[in-house]
Every structure is written in C-alpha cells, then in structure tokens.
Amino acid sequence: MVAWRRRDAVPEGCELPWLYGVARRIVANQRRSGGRRKAALARLQVVSSASGDEPEPQVLRSEEADDVANALGRLRSADREVILLAGWEELNRDELAASYGCTPNALTKRLNRALDRLGRELGVVERSRGGFFGRRMVAR
C-alpha cells in the first residue's frame, strides 16, 4: 500500500531496491510495535502477580479495564487513535506530532482534549493535569 501511494517517488531504475527499503521499514515498525505490546503485557502481568490480591479485586480490575475499553470504543476514531498511539504504542510527543504533521504543542492539545472526552465517557469529573509524556508506569 505504501509503495502504491508513493509510486511517484520511486527512483527510475531502482524500483526493486526501493521496494525492499519500504518493506524493511514496514517490518521494522511492526516488530517495534509488537515488542512494545509484549512489554506492556509483561508489565501488566508483573503488576497483577505482584499484587497478591484475592480473586475479587482482580475481577474488579478486569471490569475497570472493560469499562475503559468500552469508553474508548464510544470515542470518535480520531480521539481513540491519538490516545492509543500515545498510550499503547508509547510514541513520544515529537513522534506523535510528526505522525500527525503538526507541532508538538498542537499534538498535546489534541491528546488532552481526547483524554478529557475519554474521562467524560468514564464519568471522571476532573482529570489530573500531570504531564502525559513525562509519566512513567511504576509497578506497585
């Protein structure tokens, strides 16, 4: 698909090497994305197993995760996309801004608005305004 969209950019006489380069970058992006997903799942398992909670709190956390997933599903696709790219894919502010073709400040506004809408879907009255991109997840 990338090759088709960028077919005007294919250098004359170097079509095959150009296609290999496109394919290499796509595979690298998918590999990085898969690695981030595995790391996120591993962090979730560490938090879950380290908590030593009885089954009932584990079920509540599962229901909370379902609530968040359902709330994300009710958002506009643009809001859902920016939240997932920032949170799940762990793109930093500059990477996200580049992917959207906007300034980092504009991207931060877009993300904050999307997070506000997500909070409203979840019934959160006021969202903490801590720096999204400076945060680190800490297992307790």
Describe the structure.
The radius of gyration is 19 Å and the shape is elongated. The protein has helices spanning 2-5, 15-51, 55-74, 77-87, 93-100, 104-122. The termini are far apart. The longest helix has 37 residues, at 15-51. It folds into two domains: 1-52, no CATH class; 54-130, Winged helix-like DNA-binding domain superfamily/Winged helix DNA-binding domain (Arc Repressor Mutant, subunit A, Orthogonal Bundle), CATH 1.10.10. It is an all-alpha fold and 140 residues long. Helix 4 packs across helix 6 (104-122).
From N to C, what is the helix and strand string? HHHHHH
CATH architecture group name of the largest domain? Orthogonal Bundle
Q: Specify the biggest β-sheet.
A: none
Structural shape: elongated
User: What's the CATH topology name of the largest domain?
Assistant: Arc Repressor Mutant, subunit A
Structural classification = mainly alpha
Q: Distance between the terminal alpha carbons, to the nearest Å?
A: 43 Å
Number of domains: 2
CATH class of the largest domain: Mainly Alpha
* CA-based gyration radius: 19 Å
